[in-house]
Amino acid sequence: MQERKSIISLAETITLESFLLVWFMPINILVTFILGSGLGWIVIKITRPPKHIEGLIIGCCSAGNLGNLLVIIIPATCKEKGSPFGDPDLCYQYGMAYATLSMAIGAVFLWSYVYNIIRISSSRLQIEGLSKVKEISQSKDTLDDAYTILLPNPESQEKLKVSMATRIKSKVRKIVSSVNWKSMFAPSTIGAICGFMIGVIPQLRNVLIGSDAPLHVVEDSVSMLGDAAIPTVTLIMGANLLRGLRGASTPLWSIVGIVVVRYILLPLLGIVVVKGAIHLGLVKSDPLFQFVLLLQYSLPPAMNIGTMAQLFGSGESECSVIMLWTYALASIAVTLWSTFFMWLVS
C-alpha cells in the first residue's frame, strides 16, 4: 500500500521544476547517515558493547525511520489548528510528497549503506571465530572473502603482479555484488520512481493526473488503496515492537548512547546543517520542506534494521530491545522536537 501512496503523492505534486527545488533532500539524508555513523562509533568507543552488536549500534545511530513515521506525522501536523504550513489540504498534498520522497531515498541509503555495515560486522565475527581454530596464516579463499575488501591483509607475490586497475575492478565488482539490490528497490522505492516518472513526464501526467485526465479513474483507485497505508504501517510497527518485550538483555549504556545520539545530538546538528543550507541559499523558503528536513534528524531508528539483524543472525534479540526503548521514548522526543521545529520555521 505504501508504493501506491508514493505513486499518487509524487505524481500529483512533483514536476521537473519542483524537483529542482527539493534536490537538497538526498544530500540532507546522506548527511544524517554520515553524522549518525560517526556518533555511533563514538558510542561504541565509550560504552564498549559486545562485538556482535557494534554494527547494530552504528546502524541504529545512522539510519532513522525516514518513511513510515513521516507518513504518520505530516498529515497529523497539517490538520492541526494554527499550523504554520497554511492550507491543510495543500499542506497534506505536498507533505505526503516530501514524506514519500524521504521514504524512497532513505530505503536506498539504508539497504546500500547500513546493510553493508551490519554485514561486514557479522563477517568480522565469523573471521575472528575461524582464526581461533585455524592458524594465523590465511588461505587464498579467506583472502578472497568479501570482507577482506575493507581489511589490510598481506597480499601474495602473485597478487603484487596484478595491475592496479584489475585489482580495483575486482574489488568494485565484489562491493556491487554484496549490495542487496532486491531490498534496496523495495515496493516503496519502486512506487516513488513511478511517481517521479508520471510527475516529470508531461504526457503521462496529462493522461493520469487531474479531474479531466482520460485515465483519472486509475488515479482515484490507486489513491483509495494508498489511503490505507497509514493505519497499516502503524499496526505493523506496533507488532514489531512487541518482540522487544521478549528480547535478550542489552547493555544499558549502549541503549542510553543510542537514545542520546538520536534524540539530542543529531537534532542539534541537524539544525546547524539545515540553517546553514538555508543561509547559503541551498534550500527553498518553504516552511513545510524545511520542517521535513529538520525532522529527518530526530526520528527513531529504521525498523528494517531488525530485518538485517535477523538476516545475518547478529544481535537480533538486542535489536528488539533497542527498538522497544527508542520507540517508547520517541513519543516524547519527536513531539518536543516537532513543536520546536515548527516554531523555528514559522
Automatic annotation (TrEMBL):
Belongs to the auxin efflux carrier (TC 2.A.69.2) family. Keywords: Auxin signaling pathway, Endoplasmic reticulum, Membrane, Transmembrane, Transmembrane helix, Transport. It is a multi-pass membrane protein. It comes from the Eukaryota. InterPro entries: Mem_transp_PIN-like (IPR004776), PILS1/3/4/5/7 (IPR045033). It holds the Pfam family Mem_trans. The chain crosses the membrane at residues 20-44, 56-76, 96-118, 179-201, 221-242, 254-282, 324-345. It is found in: Endoplasmic reticulum membrane. Involved in cellular auxin homeostasis by regulating auxin metabolism. Regulates intracellular auxin accumulation at the endoplasmic reticulum and thus auxin availability for nuclear auxin signaling. PANTHER family: PROTEIN PIN-LIKES 1 (PTHR31651:SF33), PTHR31651. This is Protein PIN-LIKES 3-like. The keyword Transit peptide does not apply. It comes from Stylosanthes scabra.
